[in-house]
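Hello, quick one for you while I still have it in my head. A protein chain has come my way and I'm curious about its shape. I'm sending you its amino acid sequence along with the backbone structure tokens. I'd be grateful if you could look everything over and explain what you see. Here's the protein in full, and shout if anything looks odd to you:
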Amino acid sequence: MAAVPQQSPHPSSMVSGKEQERQRQVRVDKAHIDRQRQALELQRENILSQRTSNPHRRTALEAALKHVEAQIESLG
């Protein structure tokens, strides 16, 4: 009976496995950022929908809106 040589893991298959893991992590990170952006957009819409005649409340809403918009901007 002829001996069949054992195949060692091919370096390129290990690289592709690492590359696949990196690509999976990129997708997970992108999904996380997309969810963060969506939550911030909802907060922004909520702030914009609020009406008030109280000047202190209006100032607080304006500050909150600037904060949320800065966070959205930082996400890219």
Remarks:
- The chain is about 80% helix and 0% strand.
- The mean pLDDT is 86.
- The radius of gyration is 25 Å.
- Residues 27-75 form one domain.
